[in-house]
Amino acid sequence: MTNQSPSPLAVGAREAAAMLAISRRTLWGLTAPRGPIPACKVGGRVLYRVTDLEKYLAKLASESMTQPAAGEAPASTTPE
Predict the structure, then answer these.
(1) Of all helices (H) and strands (E), which one includes residue 30?
(2) In this predicted model, what pLDDT tens digit does every residue of 23-77 receive, in sequence order?
(3) What is the pTM of this model?
(4) How far apart, in whole angstroms, are the C-alpha atoms of residue 32 and residue 39?
(5) Phi, psi of 49, deg, nearest 5
């Protein structure tokens, strides 16, 4: 029998920022109502649900796949 600890449902600001590879200040700016990442306060501590962080990252990834990279021209849909 293995003794694996369950994955946390929510993490604090330090852990959430580390998961997204951003600073805590940047995370604060992205936290609702200022930004798109929801958070909740539990006992005076701001917590971020891991699923919300994953959804935010997935949304960023899908947006970056549909938009041209900086400095690139958008793909032309008209024949030359």
Answers:
(1) helix 24-30
(2) 999 999 999 999 999 999 999 999 999 999 999 999 999 988 877 666 665 555 5
(3) 0.74
(4) 7
(5) -70, 135
Amino acid making up residue 79:
P
In degrees rounded to 5, what are phi and psi of residue 54? -65, -40
Please indicate whether residue 6 or residue 55 has the higher confidence score (pLDDT). Answer: 55
DSSP string for 2-60 = --PPPPPSEEEHHHHHHHHTS-HHHHHHHBTTTSSB--EEETTEEEEEHHHHHHHHHHH
Q: Distances from the Cα of 63 to the Cαs of 25, 48, 52, in angstroms?
A: 23, 22, 17
Question: Domain extents for the chain?
Answer: 10-63
